[in-house]
Design a protein that fits this description.
Length: 366
C-alpha cells in the first residue's frame, strides 16, 4: 500500500470568517495519503497595535505531521514577538520568527534525539491595511489575483534551482533525481534536522534552509481581488492561472468561500492530485461578486452536460465510468469552467451515471 490509501479520504475540514475588510474560506482534505500532514492557521486581528492586521498560513508536513502542527500553533507568535517586528522592521521580523521557531523545535526532545525526522514547508501572509507581507519556505505557494489575473506568486524552493543547488553542494550535499541527497523534494523547510547538521555553517547555509523568502506587495483597493495560499497538492495539478481563473468563475456563482475552496480541492482530486490538499482563499473588497447571468449560464451548462451524458449512455450501454469521462473529454464541450474544465463537473457526471447505470455505481471512484 505504500504511502497511499486504496481509496481517498474525501472528508473535509472547513473554516470561514471575516475581519478587517477581508473574507476567508478554508478547506483541507487528506486525499490519497495514509496520513494528514497539512496544517493551517488563520487569524484576523492580531491584537494591540496590530488589530487591523490579519494572518493566514498553510503548512505542508512530510515524514509526519508534527512540525506542521507546531508551526500552525507557534509561527505567528514567533514573528510578532520578535524585537524587529515590534520596531516595525516587518520583513526582518518575519525572518527572525522563522529562524527562532526552527531553533525552538530543534530543542524539543523528540527532535533533539533524532527520533522525529519530520519537516514542513510554510507559506504565510500578513495583511496590513496597506500592504501584504508574504513569506515562503518550501514549495507551498501564495498567489495574488488582481485585475483578473495572477499578479504575484511566490517561488517554489526546489533543489534544482541554481542558488538552492549551490547551497546544498557547498554544504556537502548532492542533488539527485531533483531531491536533496536523492531524498527530500524541497530545499527549504522548517524541521528536517538531519539535513541541518553541517558544522561550521549557519542555519541558512545548511543542506535544507529554514530561511523564508519574503515579499511585500502594496494593496490596491481597485484591482486586488483575492489571495490564495495552498500546499503543493493543489499546484501539482493546477497552474497559477488555472486556480485564479477557476476561483474567479466560482465567485461569480456564490459568495460562500467554503463552497468555493471545497470545489477547488475536489477538482484537484479529480485532476489526479495524490497528495494532502489545503487551501486558504482570502477575498479583498474588489473580488468578483455573484452575477445572475453567470449563474444562469452555469445552470444551462449543467442541463446541457446532463443531456449529453444521458445521450451517450443511451447509445453506449456497456460504457464504464472511466470510458465515459474519456469520451466526454474528447467532445470539446464549450463553456466548461475556466481552469477547472471537465473535472469541475465531475460530481454532476457521477450523479447522472449512477442514476442511469445504478448497477455500476460501485465502479465510480476518484
Amino acid at each position: 500500500m505504500g504511502t497511499f490509501l486504496d481509496k481517498p479520504k474525501t472528508e473535509k475540514h472547513n473554516e470561514h470568517g471575516a475581519g478587517n475588510g477581508l473574507r476567508y474560506g478554508v478547506s483541507s482534505m487528506q486525499g490519497w495519503r495514509v496520513e494528514m500532514e497539512d496544517a493551517h492557521r488563520v487569524r484576523t486581528g492580531l491584537g494591540e497595535k496590530l488589530d487591523d492586521w490579519s494572518f493566514f498560513a498553510v503548512f505542508d508536513g512530510h515524514a509526519g505531521g508534527s512540525v506542521s502542527a507546531h508551526c500552525a500553533q507557534e509561527l505567528l507568535d514567533c514573528i510578532v514577538s520578535s524585537d524587529e517586528f515590534k520596531k516595525e522592521d516587518f520583513c526582518l521580523g518575519i525572518r527572525t520568527g522563522f529562524l527562532k521557531l526552527d531553533n525552538i523545535l530543534r530543542a524539543k526532545p523528540e527532535f533533539a534525539c533524532g527520533m522525529d525526522k519530520a519537516g514542513s514547508t510554510a507559506v504565510c501572509a500578513l495583511v496590513s491595511p496597506t500592504q501584504v507581507y508574504i513569506a515562503n519556505c518550501g514549495d507551498s505557494r501564495a498567489v495574488i489575483c488582481s485585475g483578473g489575473r495572477p499578479s504575484f506568486s511566490t517561488r517554489d524552493h526546489k533543489p534544482i534551482l541554481p542558488a538552492e543547488k549551490e547551497r546544498i553542494q557547498n554544504a556537502g550535499g548532492t542533488v539527485m533525481i531533483q531531491r536533496v541527497n536523492g531524498s527530500l523534494a524541497v530545499s527549504r523547510a522548517l524541521g528536517d534536522y538531519e539535513y541541518k547538521n553541517v558544522e561550521g555553517r549557519g542555519p541558512c547555509e545548511q543542506l535544507v534552509s529554514p530561511e523564508p523568502e519574503i515579499f511585500i506587495q502594496d494593496r490596491s483597493e481597485e484591482n486586488d481581488e483575492f489571495l490564495v495560499l495552498a500546499c503543493d497538492g493543489i499546484w501539482d495539478v493546477m497552474s497559477n492561472e488555472d486556480v485564479c481563473d477557476y476561483i474567479r468563475s466560482l465567485l461569480l456563482l456564490t459568495d460562500d468561500l467554503e463552497v468555493i475552496t471545497n470545489q477547488v480541492i475536489d477538482t484537484c482530486l479529480y485532476k489526479g492530485s495524490r497528495d494532502n490538499m489545503s487551501i486558504i482563499l482570502v477575498t479583498f473588497p474588489g473580488a468578483p461578486k455573484p452575477c445572475p447571468q453567470a449563474i444562469a449560464e452555469d445552470l444551462a451548462l449543467n442541463k446541457k452536460l446532463e443531456q449529453i451524458v444521458r445521450d451517450v449512455l443511451a447509445t453506449k450501454v456497456d460504457i464504464d465510468f472511466v470510458q465515459l469521462l474519456g469520451f466526454l473529454g474528447d467532445e470539446n464541450i464549450p463553456g466548461l469552467p475556466p481552469g477547472g474544465g471537465l473535472s469541475a463537473k465531475r460530481s454532476l457526471i457521477e450523479a447522472v451515471y449512477k442514476d442511469v447505470c445504478p448497477q455500476n455505481a460501485d465502479s465510480v471512484s476518484s
